[in-house]
Amino acid sequence: MSDSTKDGSKPPLMDKEKEEKKLLDNWTNSFKSLFSGATDEEIALKEHKRCEKWKKSLIKNNSLIEFMLENLKKSGCEFDVEKHFKCVPCDFKRSGGFSPELGIILCQNRFSSKRHLQDTLTHEMIHAFDQCTTKVNFNNCEQHACAEIRAINLSGECKFLTEVKRGNFGFASHHQKCVKRRALITLKDLDCCKGENVAEDALLHVWKSCFNDKAPFDEIY
User: Fold this and answer.
1) Is the pLDDT of residue 19 over 50?
2) pLDDT of residue 24
3) 98 in the same domain as 70
4) Active site residue 124
């Protein structure tokens, strides 16, 4: 897998992430403009209420979230949705996170839509499933690469229309390209993947087996 330009130089790795962050920041500014004059605390409260509303609606009505909850339970890792699914403000660029100790974090100030929250929640639930069934060492670059490949591949965040909204219009192998791009962006930020080509090599080494591993699904969502 090569990420060099024609002249042999490395392209800016974070360009696509910057594009997405710009779109999200524009949405965030538009959201805040609706509450001009509101304090930061009032805006945070509205964001929290919206996140909680969307979260509860998805848990109650979304078949994908229900499926993941059922499979986590079957695997011996039943989630308390009130205790383990937390809507909190975040000051980093990701929209969510998973910790075996804390559960799933949903970044209430980073969601542009209910669908965005759904993709994030599913992504983190797949991490939770992997941790429950295989005890992933997230401090190991290859194991983390596998976890990211699976979560991105299976969560729905690389659907064609979602990619189009990000400005990615490729047709041939667009899904695989999306999964690789987004996984690499995450890996490049990790301490365990620091060093020249460490993230790229880890991704390449585990790609085939992890991309083809669809558990607990029968096919890509």
Assistant:
1) yes
2) 53
3) yes
4) yes
